[in-house]
Amino acid sequence: MERIFSGIQPSGEIHIGNYVGAIRNWVRLVDQYECIYCVVDYHAITVEYEVALMQRRILETATILLACGLTPEKCIVFVQSHVPEHTELAWIFNCVTPIGELERMTQFKEKAKQHRQNINMGLLDYPVLQAADILIYKAGYVPVGEDQVQHVELCRDIARKFNARFGLTFPEPQVLLSAAPRILGTDGQAKMSKSMNNTIGLLDPPSVIWEKLRTAVTCPHREKRYDPGHPEHCNIYTMHTAFSKPDQLEYVEKGCRTAAIGCIECKEILSKNMIEELIPIQDRVKAINEKSHYIHEVLTSGADRARAIAQKVMEEVRTKIGVKFRPQE
Ligand code: TYM
Asked: What is the pTM of this model?
């Protein structure tokens, strides 16, 4: 069975962009592939954060993954810092990665702008650790949202450079995109992202979801109720593609283009569908939280399973790069 790896940061709020861009796709893949999913806590410390809140953020993220259906019977779920081989391999990859490649990464440039006071080495090195996450398991496929495609391409470059220098060791992993790989935020301007304050949280209660949708920006062409719109320019329509059934999609698409329906009706349909899909997940989160030991047990055994694979690959890497001592002849 081919192997899949993907990761998510414990950012403090998992939003519907993460869900439809990545997590929901991860769930669909567990029957066809051997899947390894990771809460990447070491990536999350590349920006300022509240130390006292980190553990809760890690546990909440892992709990959401489980509640979405990524149970230990179906895949491995674990926390990145519990398997130190990730950071060990990242160091070796640092030594085959040109700095120029890292400086031209879009995410680095954006984050460097957002965090002018703290442009640290970790921020620049972020994609190298990401490459190590993937390649320490020799994963062939990486299901992510569109914003991560460039990082996975760099991962392929790193694999190629390592193989060329030290001999064939790593595959060149391919991206798997979901059907909704880029969800815009409620501001209609930027990608949905916690740092932009434009998110709908996976754990938001129904009233909050509706309030955020009700006030969300729609197609700029529909200034007045009877102005026809362009669904392809509307973030609400993009969310419909992720949450609504084909007949509803056709109804809102036509209704928007002909101004037969208003934005509020369109948003009501979306809100109902979104809430219907999220409520069972929220209920499972509550149930997991009631058995507080359960999530710890899942993460401990997930890390054990992941570490067993990672340690073997690390042994191979140490041998290939010439640092492993051979028995004296
Ligand atoms: P993170 O936590 O920022 O995002 C997790 C996943 O959610 C996707 N995503 C989106 N998809 C669609 N629309 C959006 N608005 C949206 N926002 C986020 C991301 O593309 C991602 O798939 N760097 C990774 C974490 C990572 C990783 C890895 C991923 C670390 N190591 C190894 C794959 C393989 C990230 O973006 O996390």
From this structure: 0.97
Q: 132 by DSSP, 3-state: which?
A: helix
* Helix axes 246-257 and 263-290, enclosed angle (nearest 10): 150
Nearest to 313 by CA among 172, 143, 152, 132: 132
What distance in Å separates the CA atoms of residue 75 and residue 172, rounded to the nearest whole number? Answer: 22
pLDDT of residue 1: 82
Task: Look up 324 and say whether it is catalytic.
Answer: no
State both tokens at 162. Answer: 């390592």
Mean pLDDT of each 10-residue bin along the chain, 329 residues long: 96 95 98 98 97 98 98 98 98 98 97 94 98 98 98 98 98 96 94 94 98 95 91 94 97 96 97 98 98 95 98 98 89
Per-residue pLDDT at 177: 97
CB 17 within 8 A of CB 243: no
111 is catalytic: yes
User: How much distance in Å is there from the Cα of 25 to the middle of ligand 1?
Assistant: 12
Q: State the distance from the centre of ligand 1 to the C-alpha of 191, rounded, in angstroms.
A: 12
Catalytic pick from 113, 161, 194, 224? Answer: 194
Residue 138: active-site member: no
Ligand 1 centre distance from Cα of residue 104 (Å): 18
Residue 197 CA to residue 133 CA, distance in Å, equals 28
Is-contact 142 173, C-beta < 8 A? yes
In the prediction, which pLDDT does 20 show?
97
Q: Can you name the residues that pair with 35 across neighbouring β-strands?
A: 4
Task: Give the whole-angstrom CA distance, residue 228 versus residue 219.
Answer: 9
143 lines ligand 1 (CB under 6 A): no
Closest residue to atom 22 of ligand 1, CA basis: 144
198 lines ligand 1 (CB under 6 A): no
As a whole number of angstroms, the distance between CA 325 and CA 329 comes to 12
